[in-house]
Amino acid sequence: xxxxxxxxxxxxxxxxxxxxxxxxxxxxxxxxxxxxxxxxxxxxxxxxxxxxxxxxxxxxxxxxxxxxxxxxxxxxxxxxxxxxxxxxxxxxxxxxxxxxxxxxxxxxxxxxxxxxxxxxxxxxxxxxxxxxxxxxxxxxxxxxxxxxxxxxx
Length: 153
Hints:
With 153 residues, this protein is of the alpha+beta class. Helix content is 44%, strand content 29%. It is built from 3 helices and 7 strands. The chain has a 4-stranded antiparallel sheet with strand order 1-2-3-4. The chain has a 3-stranded antiparallel sheet with strand order 5-6-7, covered by helices on one side. A hairpin with a 4-residue loop joins β6 and β7 (115-123). α1 (13-38) runs antiparallel to α2 (42-66).
């Protein structure tokens, strides 16, 4: 297995775009609120409304490329712009898809009793939908079971 390439799961481009638009919407609300408080002209208000959405979409797409879950011989590694974690296979007790809020995510349960939510794959409504989520979860489960109970060389 050391020679095998690791399996990598990232958010889809739609999920990354949706996350960027979601974050950008918060900046739109802040910008419009600020524009109303200080009394800016309507054109500046339009820029404050459209600008953050566009910037948020681009930032979401860029950040989405750095967010991933990688499965290798050493275990499960989660990476994002702000966090990095590793769970060796011998510590993983269970792996399952769970509903958290409006999303279905993959949670990894460790022998210490803690659980870790993977950054990808996940599925939800609108932009967060992943049509291949079930296939990805089956792949994750198969790789984990192969390492846990044997079966991979």
